[in-house]
Amino acid sequence: MADHWQTELLSWPGAGAQPHDPAVASYDDLVTVTAAAIADGSDVVAQSMGGIVAVGLAIRYPHRIRRLVLVATSGGLDVASLGAQDWRDEYAMESP
Q1: Are 75 and 51 in contact (CB under 8 A)?
Q2: pTM recorded for the entire structure
Q3: Is 1 within a domain?
Q4: Confidence of residue 96 (pLDDT cuts 50, 70, 90)
Q5: 40 assigned to some structural domain
Q6: Which of 13-17, 23-27, 35-39, 75-79 has the lowest mean pLDDT?
Q7: Domain count across the chain
Q8: Does residue 86 surpass a pLDDT of 70?
Q9: Buried b (16+ CB within 10 A) or exposed e, 23-48
Q10: Do the domain assignments include residue 14?
Q11: Residue 16 falls within a domain, yes or no?
Protein backbone atom coordinates (compact mmCIF):
# COMPACT_ATOMS: atom_id res chain seq x y z
CA MET A 1 0.00 0.00 0.00
CA ALA A 2 1.11 3.52 -0.61
CA ASP A 3 3.01 5.16 2.25
CA HIS A 4 0.64 8.13 2.37
CA TRP A 5 -2.46 5.96 2.91
CA GLN A 6 -3.85 5.85 6.43
CA THR A 7 -3.98 2.20 7.46
CA GLU A 8 -5.30 0.28 10.42
CA LEU A 9 -4.23 -3.37 10.71
CA LEU A 10 -6.61 -5.54 12.72
CA SER A 11 -6.02 -9.04 14.06
CA TRP A 12 -8.14 -11.60 15.87
CA PRO A 13 -8.25 -10.89 19.62
CA GLY A 14 -6.56 -13.75 21.44
CA ALA A 15 -4.72 -15.02 18.34
CA GLY A 16 -0.94 -14.94 18.11
CA ALA A 17 0.47 -11.88 19.89
CA GLN A 18 -2.97 -10.21 20.14
CA PRO A 19 -4.24 -10.01 23.71
CA HIS A 20 -7.56 -11.62 24.55
CA ASP A 21 -10.50 -9.22 24.55
CA PRO A 22 -13.28 -10.29 26.93
CA ALA A 23 -15.74 -8.20 24.90
CA VAL A 24 -15.29 -10.60 21.95
CA ALA A 25 -17.19 -13.83 22.37
CA SER A 26 -18.86 -14.22 18.97
CA TYR A 27 -18.80 -13.35 15.29
CA ASP A 28 -21.15 -10.42 15.94
CA ASP A 29 -18.72 -9.11 18.57
CA LEU A 30 -15.87 -9.22 16.01
CA VAL A 31 -17.98 -7.21 13.56
CA THR A 32 -18.76 -4.64 16.28
CA VAL A 33 -15.10 -4.32 17.33
CA THR A 34 -14.04 -3.94 13.71
CA ALA A 35 -16.65 -1.26 13.06
CA ALA A 36 -15.35 0.72 16.02
CA ALA A 37 -11.80 0.58 14.63
CA ILE A 38 -12.51 2.06 11.20
CA ALA A 39 -13.83 5.37 9.89
CA ASP A 40 -16.85 5.87 7.65
CA GLY A 41 -15.98 5.41 3.98
CA SER A 42 -13.09 3.02 4.59
CA ASP A 43 -11.57 0.70 2.04
CA VAL A 44 -11.46 -2.72 3.72
CA VAL A 45 -9.13 -5.51 2.63
CA ALA A 46 -9.80 -8.81 4.37
CA GLN A 47 -7.92 -12.07 4.20
CA SER A 48 -8.88 -15.61 5.14
CA MET A 49 -11.40 -15.73 8.04
CA GLY A 50 -11.38 -11.93 8.11
CA GLY A 51 -13.51 -12.09 4.98
CA ILE A 52 -16.59 -13.27 6.84
CA VAL A 53 -16.17 -10.46 9.38
CA ALA A 54 -15.71 -7.94 6.53
CA VAL A 55 -18.90 -9.13 4.82
CA GLY A 56 -20.78 -8.79 8.13
CA LEU A 57 -19.31 -5.32 8.51
CA ALA A 58 -20.47 -4.32 5.02
CA ILE A 59 -23.98 -5.65 5.67
CA ARG A 60 -24.41 -4.13 9.13
CA TYR A 61 -22.50 -0.87 8.60
CA PRO A 62 -22.63 -0.09 4.85
CA HIS A 63 -21.73 3.58 5.47
CA ARG A 64 -18.39 2.43 6.88
CA ILE A 65 -17.35 0.62 3.68
CA ARG A 66 -16.36 2.40 0.48
CA ARG A 67 -14.64 -0.60 -1.08
CA LEU A 68 -14.46 -4.21 0.05
CA VAL A 69 -11.64 -6.48 -1.14
CA LEU A 70 -11.69 -10.14 -0.14
CA VAL A 71 -8.38 -12.00 -0.54
CA ALA A 72 -8.12 -15.79 -0.31
CA THR A 73 -11.12 -15.94 1.97
CA SER A 74 -13.45 -18.84 2.55
CA GLY A 75 -15.08 -17.51 5.69
CA GLY A 76 -14.54 -20.88 7.31
CA LEU A 77 -16.61 -22.74 4.75
CA ASP A 78 -15.74 -26.32 3.85
CA VAL A 79 -14.49 -25.37 0.38
CA ALA A 80 -13.76 -29.00 -0.54
CA SER A 81 -17.48 -29.80 -0.29
CA LEU A 82 -18.09 -27.05 -2.86
CA GLY A 83 -15.67 -28.59 -5.38
CA ALA A 84 -12.65 -26.41 -4.56
CA GLN A 85 -9.31 -27.65 -3.32
CA ASP A 86 -8.84 -27.21 0.40
CA TRP A 87 -5.13 -26.47 0.85
CA ARG A 88 -5.20 -25.94 4.60
CA ASP A 89 -4.34 -29.50 5.72
CA GLU A 90 -1.40 -29.74 3.32
CA TYR A 91 -0.19 -26.28 4.37
CA ALA A 92 -0.38 -27.20 8.06
CA MET A 93 1.72 -30.33 7.44
CA GLU A 94 4.43 -28.23 5.75
CA SER A 95 4.59 -25.59 8.50
CA PRO A 96 7.39 -25.99 11.07
Answers
A1: yes
A2: 0.71
A3: no
A4: low
A5: yes
A6: 75-79
A7: 1
A8: no
A9: eeeeeeebbbbbbeebeeebebbbee
A10: no
A11: no
